[in-house]
Specification:
By secondary structure, the chain is of the alpha+beta class. The protein has helices at about 55-65, 85-90, 115-130, 155-165, 185-190, 205-225, and strands at about 5-15, 25-35, 40-45, 75, 80, 135-140, 145-155, 170-175, 195-200, 225-230, 240, 245-250, 255-260, 270, 275-280, 285-290, 295-300, 305, 310-319. The structure holds zinc ion.
Amino acid sequence: MFVAPKVFSQQEAVFSLELPLQLPCTLWRHRFAPATVTGPLVVVISGLHGDEFDGGYICYRLAHFLQNLPPGWTLRGTVHLLPNANPLGTNISRRFLGFNQSDLNRSFPGVAGGSSEEQLAWAVYQEAVQAEVCVDIHSSNEFLMEVPQVRVADRPRLKNLAQELGLDLVWTHSPQHWIGGTLAQALFERQVHTLVVELGTGRRLHQLWSERVVQGILHLWVRLGVLQVNTTLPILSASYVADENNVFYLSAPQAGLLTLESGLQVGMHVQAGQKLGQVISPTQLTQAALYAPVDGFLFTLRVHPLVYEGSLVGRVVRE
Ligand SMILES: [Zn+2]
């Protein structure tokens, strides 16, 4: 009878920050490894924005899987999970940090011995930079809803890895347009393969979508040799591949309240000229309709009704 090698797991506090009037805040890492490591090290980071919680759930599910490997599955590589990379923000459900509302995901690679935010960024970066492949999980902010998707720098190897997740969309960006100070940009400069997963909405949990991401990450880890399984896995691939030329942005034509057409949901196919909704102004008693710019897949949709002129309402990748 086949007996899978034991998986050793360890929870470790890798960094801690003194807070003015509180106990220190701690960055936790969960490590999983077999007795004899023959596969690569992979890292999952979640919660860089303190109002995004899907990644924490996904890390929990991955940890549970690794602690209870089903028959036929073997761990070959090393897995590090950081389920809560921004403990200063998540505990109060705040996207940004501290007095000055700084964005941790614009602070990388961080500074050892710098400000609290810079130290925290440096600690997270030191964890992530060890990875063969790093998955950085985000939800959207509280204004938008995103179908499960992955964003990568426009490099063939990264596109191939992103496809292995089997999410709805792979969105590639040329590295010079990647936002400076993000973990992904800092890791790209160190040639660490980084997949930025995005799903759902801030301050919400999307369990079904999160389960898809869990399955996608396990699939990726099998392809990387982190996990071994004695059955054949299905080939996963993204439904859509977006780049900087085939994504169309829907913007609010005026300030007011957004009302969507009945039944319209993120993840739907839309046709050029199809009415998607309207923005009404209760004070000026005006309205302005919104139409789909092209035939395509609606992968982002606003869920917060308040808009200013030009606010992002949705994104469509052309079919
Ligand atoms: Zn985020």
